[in-house]
Every structure is written in C-alpha cells, then in structure tokens.
Write a structure and sequence with these properties.
7-stranded mixed beta sheet; alpha+beta; Deoxyribonuclease I, Chain A; 6 helices; 278 residues; 6-stranded mixed beta sheet; 19% helix
Length: 278
C-alpha cells in the first residue's frame, strides 16, 4: 500500500493551475492508494460547482456546499478524467486569509470510502478564527485501517497549544487504535529535532514515525527554509510533515515527492510518500 501526504497550499500558489497539472502528473506516476491533503481551499464566495465534479465524493454530514474551485474536487475530477477511480471527502475548518474556505481532504484511489469521522481538536470552534483546527478520517472498502488527515497548531502558541490539541486527538483515537491500524497523515508543525516538544509528545504516545522505521529513506526534509507561519522562527530546512502509524507496520521506503527532484514543487511543503511491505 502506498500512502501520500501533502500540505497543498492550493489556491494560495501563484501558478496554481500549472502546479495542479503537475500534481496530477505526479499522482499518476506514483499511484498512491491513499492521499491526505491539508490547506485544501475553495473561494469562500466562489461559483456553484458543476455536479459532474462531485462524482466520487463521500458527503460528510454537516459539511458546507462545495464550490467550483474546491481543490479536492479539482484533483478528483482530473484523476477521473485520466481513468483513475477516485473516492474523496473534504471538510472546511476555518476561513483562511479572509477569502478561502480552508479545510482538509482524503482521496482514495481504487477503493471507495465507506465511512468518515471528523472532530475538532482546538479549543476554538470559531470558523473565522485562523487558529481553529479539525481532523478528517476515512475508512475504505476492503481495509480495517483508518486514515486521518491532520494539520496541527504550534507548540509555543499560548492560545491554542499543540500539546492540548494532541491530547484531544490522541484521546479521540484511542478506541480506533484497539480495532485496527490508524494512520495520522499531515503537517504537524513540529520539527523532529526539537526535544521535549511536539514530535516527542507524539512519539511518547506510542505512535510510530514511519520515516524512522522505513528500510530506505532520504533526508526527510519537507520544508525548505522560510514559509508562511515559520518566517519569524526558522531559517533552516525542517521536517514538519509526517506519516505516523498506531502499529509498527513494515515500511519499504519513505521519500519526499514534489520536492524539485522527485517531481516539481507544487506547494511550499514537500509531499511524503511511503510504501508498506505488507
């Protein structure tokens, strides 16, 4: 099984249409089974969507209407045009930059989503608050695994502490972990080289960093220097994006993708791709 995660930055990218095409090309080349995406935007006051573009969508209860430029819908539609069966789900979490419905999404290639899970992890539930955080999980036909797409806050944010968000997320998944493998995919905003902070909190909770256990792996860097949200505190390369698993499943490799070497850059983050041996 191949699993990919990427913080897309989607509609914020200057060359969005070109990068969308490049992203689709990369997906068709690698053909991951599960794709977890963060910062999946649509214009808050955009046009009504063509119903054809909603094919394959798993409607999430209580989710707002999906509009024409929704990034997840655009990706799924282009994959179907290329002949790839795609089941997908998206939820909005907050208003981004005053003009985007910003959320998270999961796409499943070849297997239909059979059920979804969603819940907030931040104290704030205010849609207009940029600190508001939530997660989306899916289970697909033929697998007992649950896959969650995650975009965490920062360790040193005194209003929305990473540790508080992590404790809630970990607690909400406790029962799921007892029934089968659970995967956490996404941008954790937690550098792996800072001891006593977010990375260590996740690892101490019993989650397995698949990058560390992979038989083959590269540098692991997913953020090249300065990006939005880190400009005031970082000038070096970071590993912020992870694929964690509740169980120690053998991993053949972990590599970055869409990093300028393994495919063109399509975001301010690199993607992370793993393949299991099972």
């Amino acid at each position: 099984m191949k699993i990919l995660t990427l913080n897309t930055h989607s509609l914020l990218e200057e060359n969005y249409q070109q990068q969308l095409d490049q992203f689709i090309e990369g997906i068709l080349r690698e053909m991951p089974d599960i794709i977890a995406l963060q910062e999946v935007n649509q214009s808050a006051f955009g046009e009504e969507i063509d119903p054809e573009m909603l094919e394959g969508q798993y409607p999430v209860p209580g989710c707002m209407r999906i509009l024409q430029d929704n990034h997840a819908a655009q990706v799924a539609y282009r994959l179907r045009q290329a002949g790839v069966e795609c089941s997908w789900a998206w939820i909005p979490i907050k208003l981004g930059y005053g003009k985007f419905d910003e959320g998270v999404a999961i796409l499943s290639l070849g297997r239909k989503i059979r059920c979804v899970d969603q819940f907030p992890i931040s104290k704030s539930k205010d849609y207009d608050n940029w600190r508001t955080r939530g997660v989306l999980g899916v289970q697909v036909e033929g697998l007992e695994d649950w896959f969650y797409t995650v975009h965490m806050g920062w360790w040193d944010d005194q209003l929305e502490r990473f540790l508080d968000q992590w404790k809630k997320l970990n607690c909400c998944l406790a029962s799921r972990r007892m029934c089968g493998p659970v995967w956490l995919l996404g941008d954790f905003n937690a550098p792996d080289d800072r001891r006593g902070e977010g990375y260590d909190a996740v690892a101490a909770s019993g989650w397995v960093d698949t990058y560390r256990t992979a038989e083959k792996r590269g540098s692991g860097i997913t953020v090249p220097g300065l990006i939005d949200g880190w400009a005031h505190k970082n000038k070096s390369n970071l590993r912020l994006d992870y694929i964690w698993c509740s169980r120690n499943i053998p991993i053949a490799y972990s590599k970055t993708i869409f990093d300028g070497q393994n495919g063109p850059m399509v975001s301010d983050h690199y993607g992370v791709l793993i393949e299991t041996k099972a």
